[in-house]
Design goal:
346 residues, alpha/beta, Rossmann fold, 6-stranded mixed sheet, 6 strands, 41% helix
């Protein structure tokens, strides 16, 4: 099934004057009222909503402003979206992709340039998958969308041995379908819902098991070289997305392909990070910030730094080797009672 739904009034209209502007930081819609998701799936209303609706509304708007600010900052910092882009938002039915779509739509209305949004969902033909939920939700929003049908479920069940983790095979098949759809709809950006916690966990998975200093970047060309993949939630905490999904009452669709099977090592890393944050507040923020403050000359990758060409310059070098001396910046950061925190968009 393929469904293309036109945007409603005030949706994807083109403004030549705005489209000609250079890419600035996208402003957050601080004064915009909160608009909850259409009532697609019946769900119990949390006690927090019923106890004090005004307080719940205040907290929801406060959270939404922070999320918009963080996403807008990531877009500006990494040039994630440019004038005229057609952004394909990959919508799985989980909290992260719902939040991504909602925030990008709100920023779209305030951006000083024009860009299109198309939501895309892959129906993998999982038994019991509620195929009507996402189309009804997107139609209610007036968001252009496409539902791509591909029976990857049967392939995964046939190829992967019983009891083995299905996530890798499933994700590879899903990626291939989404790349194809991106080409068919003329998408210039593929937006994924990976957040700050995903980026940190992936860094440690590569460090512990892959022997690489590597993670999910906010922006990168796809492995087939044909698409640009972006992660606008790069500055957003998962716990904020959980709260936002609850407050917005998104019609969450769980992944039942493997009985909500989790990647064991990723789950262990996530537990490790949560434990660190509980015992050593600020540690995970410091690690996260370090991902954007790489000093190649102080590592060992010869592809990033020409160690063979190092010569004495006869002048002071700010990043030069201090031999046996203690790094004063590190000493200050590790002093008792001092926590070095500089979370982007916080």
């Amino acid at each position: 099934m393929i469904g293309i739904v036109p945007a409603g009034p005030g949706g994807l209209c083109y403004h030549p004057r705005l489209a000609a502007l250079p890419l600035p930081r996208i402003a957050a819609m601080d004064d915009a009222p909160l608009a909850r998701a259409p009532d697609v799936a019946a769900s119990a209303t949390p006690a927090a909503h019923a106890a004090d609706p005004r307080k719940a509304e205040f907290e929801a708007n406060k959270l939404r402003k922070r999320l918009r600010r963080q996403v807008g900052q990531a877009i500006g910092d990494y040039g994630l979206i440019s004038p005229g882009d057609r952004v394909m938002v990959c919508l799985s039915g989980g909290k992260d992709s719902y939040g991504l779509l909602d925030i990008l739509r709100s920023l779209q209305g305030r951006a000083p340039f024009h860009f299109d949004i198309v939501a895309v969902n892959l129906d993998q033909k999982q038994p019991g998958f509620p195929a009507d939920v996402l189309p009804r939700y997107l139609e209610g929003l007036g968001v252009p969308f496409r539902i791509a049908e591909q029976d990857t479920y049967s392939v995964v069940k046939r190829v992967v041995a019983a009891g083995a983790t299905m996530c890798s095979m499933c994700s590879r098949l899903r990626r291939g379908v989404l790349y194809r759809v991106a080409g068919e709809i003329g998408a210039t950006r593929i937006a994924l819902g990976h957040h700050r916690d995903d980026i940190l966990a992936t860094f440690f998975l590569n460090l512990f098991f892959g022997g690489k200093l590597k993670t999910m970047p906010p922006k990168l060309v796809s492995d087939d070289g044909r698409h640009v993949v972006i992660r606008p939630l790069a500055y957003v905490r998962e716990r904020d997305l959980v709260r936002y999904a609850d407050l917005m009452r998104f019609p969450i669709i769980p992944c039942n392909l493997c009985g909500s099977q989790e990647h064991l090592q990723r789950r262990q890393v996530a537990l490790m990070l949560r434990d660190w944050e509980r015992k050593f507040p600020g540690r995970t923020e410091s690690i996260y910030n370090a991902l954007a403050k790489v000093v190649p000359s102080h590592l060992m990758d010869r592809a990033l730094f020409d160690f063979a060409a190092v010569r004495a310059t006869g002048r002071a070098e700010p990043d030069g080797d201090i031999a046996f001396d203690v790094d004063t910046a590190l000493e200050r950061a590790t002093a008792p009672g001092v926590v070095a925190v500089d979370l982007p968009g916080a």
